[in-house]
Protein 1
Amino acid sequence: MSSTEPKIFEVGGAVRDRLLGLAVHERDWVVVGATPESMTEQGFRPVGKDFPVFLHPESGEEYALARTERKIAPGYHGFTFHASPTITLEQDLRRRDLTINAMARDEAGHLIDPFNGQADLDKRLLRHVSDAFREDPVRILRLARFAARFAPLGFRVADDTMALCRDMVDSGEVDALVGERVWQELAKALMAPAPEVFIRVLRRCGALAVLLPEVDRLFGIPQPPRHHPEIDSGEHVLMALQQAARLEADLPVRFAVLVHDLGKGITPKAELPRHRGHEARGVPLVKALCERLPIPTACRDLAMGVTRYHLQCHKIRELRPETLLRLITGLDALRRPERLSDFTLACEADYRGRLGLEDRPYPQAAYLAEALRRCQAIDATPFVNDGLRGAEIGNAMERARLDALADLRADPDTAG
């Protein structure tokens, strides 16, 4: 390769996914032998803040100059980058996280694979490229996320890579991760085909206890086998996450499922395996976790509601009208009825996330939807026409809603 003639290579996920026979949604490129000036002269638009990245003038795809990086401080911000026309493609690929992400194709379509990424694809292994992996704690999160994404294809984390992650946790590297970055990776992992694998990988290397200690402490906590044949509270949460993915739930639902049982982690030992009151105990834990990461409002609000009311939803047909109305108003469903479907979907994932009960129907969702419909049908107009004012109208509407819910409960034909 001439040092004066820039070369362009397709790199990263597009190369990997094409070898796996998966659809390629976006492509990234590395340019070897170029300078920022030569890129702008060709019409590329610079967008990189920390290192030279450019957008193609027509396709809008990212083209990065080949670069190396060096660790200069703790945490994932502690890097300095060096981009130069003398940096080789292999040097650029060496700084990447996993071997399956460290492959490239040249302009003729030939595969360049200096770290045996294709062999690891064939073996279904997620393996680090070099010991430089330990310099960036975000790579543990990315590793766990790739494991969650590719678990259906049979991928697993290589033993030496898992050992390296444990060393990173033990050395305190993970402590440097800030909440915003943890949430970015968690949100992507929760939407993966196997989100429970993300949690398992983090737990195996010890990172879960650092990043999500409220979730980590659920493992080993027993539950009554009559209701939870899987026994372990942590395993139940992972089974519920599997169900949320199976139900194709969106992000707020999956997050709510992840945290809905946090209260079980602080049940007094003398009360185990029962968890009376775990719903109320879990609410402040969810609130604190949401503030620490921080979690978007939609995810936080649903998680708080699911945590507080999921057991009532499971027993919906047994609830007195007053209790059912408090559930509906507690979810703010009269003003925001769109919340109800997400709430019941999270409850369904929880209900079905139990050993041997994965395919059990959940008619409670239809019953709660009908309860909300009947409450919404109560209109203030007749009470205004009767001469009621102010709080009198609200009280009358509440009584009418309670009567409607009592009729629902008495109807033997109502699903639930």
Note: The chain has a mean pLDDT of 93.
Protein 2
Amino acid sequence: MRENPLVLHVLGARPNFVKAAPVVRGLDELGVRQGIIHTGQHYDALMSDVFFADLGLPEPVANLGVGSGTHAKQTAALLVGLEEVVEAQEPDLVVVYGDVNSTLAAILVCAKLGIPTAHVEAGLRSFDRGMPEEINRIVTDSLSDLLFATSPEALSYLATEGVPAAKMHLVGNPMIDSLFAALPSLDSSRLEGIPARYGVATLHRPANVDTPEAAAELVTAVLEVSRQIPLVVPIHPRGRARLAAAGLVDGPGVKVVDPLGYVDFLSLVKGAALVVTDSGGVQEETTMLGVPCLTVRPNTERPITVTHGTNRLVTPAALPAAASKALADGASTPAGELPVLWDGASGPRIARVIAAWLKGENLSPASRNGRL
């Protein structure tokens, strides 16, 4: 290892930025040299640039600007762009986050070049290989040298897949670190035109929006929920046209808004009486904020949000009745029941493991269970 090793973080979509910020800060405090590659997978300023500002991330050393496209075209562009930047930067470790195509491409490039990698949010499984993200998770974890898990069940999934225990580290959830840091700034009154009592809906998964039939079924259910409570819907570029064609924007109880920055979005969620989503990260954020969450999916790679949080899986057909019950019951997550190590200190834990690894130090069993 070089005397002054370099760590590169590959970020492609807004959840990546939220997870990376605490790790970047933690490594900075330890004096580790680092840089960010922004792949531009989320290319809209409202989907990426504002997150750099909200989270205090440094300017990237490269922005590939790959934009959208089919999985094959986007991944191919990422492979070509990342190979060029990684070879030029000569990092000692590349850190990837989550399960987007940028993560998959970075892992493949580094595996071919013989560059060590670390995966933050390792071991999450939906056990649904119809989800492109599930394929990305499995491949990424199989090739990573350091695997940082957010919850105990993730460690068991990795062990079942044959990952050596020495590679795995239970560190908690860095997304919750970012939420803790943002809490003092969260205030839904900063957003204009929001009703006093409202729900939030975020919908973008391929299974929900990529066919006219699925989008129509989902929109019908969401519009029925909007008759119970006004809904604010930040529209993701993915599926915007399909959801609009299905009539989402025409609902009298629906207020469609552009994608929001990190603090604005969390402010919206914190003030909501209900959240309807198909996003993974939102399931975690609502668990922490104690907001009832209905996830319109048959499965989740974050089961801890169901067992320890406010999340419930529903079908589109069951959504209106589930919303009625959630609105009547309300929800809160007592601090004592939050998932283990979701305490706002995950970024420093990850940073300490990386710093020790860069020095070639043998990591103790305690470090692998969140006690380093």
Note: The two ends are 22 Å apart (CA to CA).
Protein 3
Amino acid sequence: MKKRMIIMLAVVGLVFGALYGFQTFKASMIKQALASLRDPPQTVATTQAAVTPWQTTIKAVGSVRAEKGADLALEVSGTVTELNFTSGDDVREGQILMRLRADDDIANLDALKATADLNNIVLKRDQEQIKIHAVSQATIDSDAANLKKAVAQVAQQQAVVDKKILTAPFSGRLGIRSVDLGQYLGAGTTVVTLQSLDPVFVDFYLPQQALANVRSGQGVKARVDTYPDSAFDGKITAINPKVDSTSRNVQVRAEFSNGDHRLVPGMFATVEIMIGDPSGLVTLPQTAITENPYGDVVFLVEKKDGSSTGLAVKQVFVKTGETRGDQIAVTSGVQVGDQVVIAGQMKLHNGSQVKINNAVVPTDDAHPTIVDR
């Protein structure tokens, strides 16, 4: 009986030993399998954080307008008998552009001039007669009044004739002619537009918070889509003394030299106002910033602990400032010389292994341009 008990205990011990050994073996195999399942290094593009000159600016959008501009028309109606310009001409102030038929008015003017000349002759003759007391002073007074009346009638009729002549009120460039020779025009019909193109203004609006940073004479730069590679330099000439009570914006006007006439009234323009002196800030491509509910994040590349070649990333929260083209200013969280991931970070987490391939990197241009393809 005792012998059987010993044999049974031995068998049970062997079974438990086998089970323990199997569990240990299984745990070892699982550990090896999990170790082999670690994420492989992710390919990313990086850049080295550096300080670049940064000019703080206020940006706005506006429209180009001429220093002087008018749609030319006549106050009276009539038939066009003379056109002295073609579309797109450069004209000088006072140049005659068009005439309406004015034969009757000119004839009336000549008649009134003749009457005025006669009244002048009568006055002079009576002034000689009064010296010998041949006429009374009342006659002289009547003659003088008649002359003044005749001269006034001549001036009035001359104004009627002048209203049928269209002249350039200032020097500038004409637009497209909208009338033809022999056409009957009603009063107020636009004949052509005239624009003075040098200098030109750009009118834009700024929020009231910006008033503390702008002043007359301050430098501005303007860009238009027509010339994406060009920036036009100007200066602020006027700030509206009244803030719009609806939008809380204030209108600002800047003046730009335009000797080459590249800026045309009506163009859409983007304006940058330079604030303060240039400073140095750490800048990164905007693609380096990842947003999450807790703030803006970047990934810094560092050597992996215990490895001379392996690389891993560290997640860092940053504070950002203004943007400029493809760039964004980083005010804290990144130091000069840090290697920052700028592409491929969507598949990363804190501690991910990485390998670097900078064959293709995002653009980092402060003033990018659109290239038509």
Note: The mean pLDDT is 82.
Protein 4
Amino acid sequence: MPHTAPGLRAAETHAAIRAALFLVLVGMCAALHIWKVPPALPQLQVELGLSLVESGFLLSAVQLGGLFLGLPVALVAERIGLRRCVLAGLGILATASMLGAWLDSSLLVLLFRAAEGCGVLMVAMPIPALIRRLVPPDRLSRIMGLWGSYMPLGTVIILLGGSWVLSLGSWQLLWWLLAALTVGCLLLTLRLVPADAPAGAGRPRDSLLQLARTTLGSVNVWLIALIFGLYAGQWMAVIGFLPTIYAAQGVSGTTAGLLTAIVAGANAIGNLAAGRLLHRGAPGWHLLVAGLGTMILCAYAAFGAGLPASAQFAAVLVFSMVGGLVPATLFVLALTLAPTPQTTSTTIGWMQQCSSLGQFVGPPVVAWTVNRSGGDWQWTWTATAAFAAAGIVLAILIGLRAKPRASATR
């Protein structure tokens, strides 16, 4: 997918960058749907009679689409067009959110959460490749650092705004409002993002099977995808259960939402820092090891060390902030380590699929660990540390493979 032409007029360049920044907002809109459940979870548990483990599956059900369809959707997006894929995903998100609010049985809420997962995937998977197509190469690392923060920024918005909406009405109201917002994003995408090139234009296209084989035949693709899954699983589990942990400690819903939003928002700091460090030439695998290693130490401090509440909050805050080095680094590595330019979307699709696997498995594993310890959250860190330690091993392998050549990040 070609970069923006060097001779493009300044006005057109600004319009392209504006479109790329708007795509970050579209990603944040998709993130709102993922994270609308945590602030509503205490209300959903009461209304639908959910156990702790069932709540964990409700948190992770939105990952079912990505769990099975990450690479297939990427292959389809290569054929129908990246922009068309984003538009279809926004349509699915809006429809599923409306139906989930209207048909509010526990089974249907779970099913529509899975449908929302497909929509999130169709929105988030093509956007990095679209950004690469739009922006000049010398700005790519910085904008991808901003893209890496779409999830924590969306999380902050929904945890704060969602808690406020829930204090005024039911969870169904929140679902309806998000559906309306998503329709607005769809209309703006039609207006601001350039249309896909006509089918067959530009370059000869590989077959779908060949694209899949090339993508899955790359060791680097597997390494970055598995690291993303290991990172996402632990972050989703810790942040997703924070409102429930605070509620069990007697913290009010609005306060719990605020504290969780601060923790989630801190992740954006790490993402933005990673973008700047990568732009300056820092090796990506160094950032991965630093982020994951810090997450191990902070998870132990937050849950296993018996520290006072203020110190626990500080540890979770650093857990999320320094952990933010990981996703932005992985998105840039996905663009630079993709086997061919044509496999950029499929590389990110496979990375998203492994991320969804981690987010699907992470919350139930943490909930199971808590149940096995008699409902005590102090052993949470053992589950998250296992994810992070495995990610560190894989990051070191990336570094060993990169030694014979120049760093993959610029």
Note: DSSP finds 18 helices and no strands in the chain.
